[in-house]
Amino acid sequence: MRLSAWRPGSKRWALATALALGVLALAGCAQTPQSVLSPAGPVATTELQVISLGFWIMLGVGVVVLGLLLAIIFRFRARKNDDALPEQVEGNTRLEFAWTIIPVLLLAVLAVPTIKDAFAAASPPNPSTALPVTVVGHQWWWEFDYPTLHIVTADEMHIPAGTQVAISLQSVDVIHSFWVPRLAGKLDAVPGRTNSMWLEAAQPGTYAGQCAELCGTSHALMRLSVIADSPSAWSAWVQKMQHPQNTQPTSGAAQAGFKDFSTAGCSACHTIDGTSYKGTLGPNLTNLGLRVGIAADNLANNDANLAKWLANPPAIMPDVDMPNLHLTQQQIADLSAYLEGQK
Ligand code: HEC
Ligand SMILES: [Cu+2]
User: Fold this and answer.
1) Boundary-marking domain end, from 218, 242, 266
2) Once rounded to an integer, what is the mean pLDDT over residues 313-331?
3) Buried b vs exposed e over 217-250: b needs ≥16 C-beta within 10 Å?
4) Ligand 1 probe mutation, 217, 322, 324, most atoms within 8 A of CB
5) Residue 215, SS3?
6) Going by CA atoms, what residue is nearest to atom 12 of ligand 1?
7) How do residues 48-102 score in pLDDT, each as one tens digit?
8) What is the residue with the minimal CA distance to atom 23 of ligand 1?
9) Final residue of a structural domain among 215, 242, 269
10) Where is average pLDDT lowest: 29-38, 172-181, 209-218, 219-228?
11) pTM for the model
């Protein structure tokens, strides 16, 4: 193939450019479960306004500066037979004032909403009616603790849609960052410190999130979902979490699983509310059957995936604190019946 066929201006070049631009444009059609550009609540909406303001200011600066640069390159380019020395200038007070004052003004315009909204993002406008949730980062899962409701769970944060949620953010090990892009900007979870933020989902739905601060081997697998419930779904969930069923089954495979939970060592790390199992190194597994996902929301919650997880957790999540416990097929089936039976 002749290389010249690909020169700028050639038909092939035009075609390749059009294709490349087309692919870029199509990328915009992808689903965007984690895009700050499709906010689903008041905090994310306000933050997008600040992002947009910054974007347009910077675009304006870029157009003006590059435009002037191009104009000057064109206007003052070397011409044929013009060997004369150009006019020599040194400093221009007016110009220097202008290019100092204009950026200061632009930054001031950007600073006002940025500072105002940064403070506003820390606590809900109506703290007295907000739902408090303590969110704790662990390598590599999220714990959700509802102090006023006495509910503790993991991976999936249920909230009532249309309600302000006041989040106290903590970490037990390293620095994590809590980020649910469609609901609110990210905030670091720092060991020994409590940071605060709030969020609200305007409509019922599931909003994907993930840890946004490199926190170890399986950082990229540290996912979560915020599930915003309608009022009836919310009260049903709270009711079920406060009064879990089938936590101490007395017959069948579930009963065998209930026993395995202590004999196989699960209870050293996991809590099941309403039982004597009170381990806290791993997620509280009460009502696991209600969950949409398991293993930090990386696997859909079903018997096959739970079996895969129990058979060898580090194969799914490298370096995870839950070891391969070399369970038998029977133990896996019974534990699965026990855990999935709680819903
Ligand atoms: C040494 C502590 C430890 C032991 C023992 C242990 N686990 Fe875990 N387990 C964990 C940790 C930590 C996680 C969280 C993994 C992650 O997502 O980072 C976990 C996660 C899980 C999950 C997924 C939970 C979720 O929120 O998605 C299930 C289910 C589970 N363990 C069941 C069991 C069962 C059943 C046993 C006993 C056979 C057991 N675990 C033994 C520490 C342990
Ligand atoms: Cu993390």
Assistant:
1) 242
2) 97
3) ebbebbbbbbbbbeeeebeebbebbeebebbebe
4) 322
5) coil
6) 282
7) 999 999 999 999 999 999 999 999 999 988 888 888 888 888 889 999 999 999 9
8) 295
9) 242
10) 29-38
11) 0.88
CA dist., res. 175 & res. 173, Å (int) = 7
Residue count of the chain, please give it: 343
Give the residue numbers spanning the domain of 302.
252-340
Count of domains forming the chain: 2
Any bridge partners for residue 157, and if so which?
226
- Chain-wide mean pLDDT for the chain? 94
CB 159 within 8 A of CB 144: no
For residue 166 and ligand 1, the question of a CB distance below 6 A is answered with: no
For position 195, what pLDDT does the model report? 98
Q: Of the ligands numbered here, which is closest to the C-alpha atom of 258?
A: 1
Contact partners, residue 33, CB within 8 Å, separation at least 6: 182, 207, 208
Using the Cα atoms of residue 90, residue 92, residue 96 and residue 99 in order, give the sign of their dihedral.
negative
Looking up residue 148, the CATH number of its domain turns out to be 2.60.40.420
Non-local (6+) Cβ contacts of 157 within 8 A are 133, 135, 142, 144, 224, 225, 226, 227
Q: Determine, yes or no, domain membership for 297.
A: yes
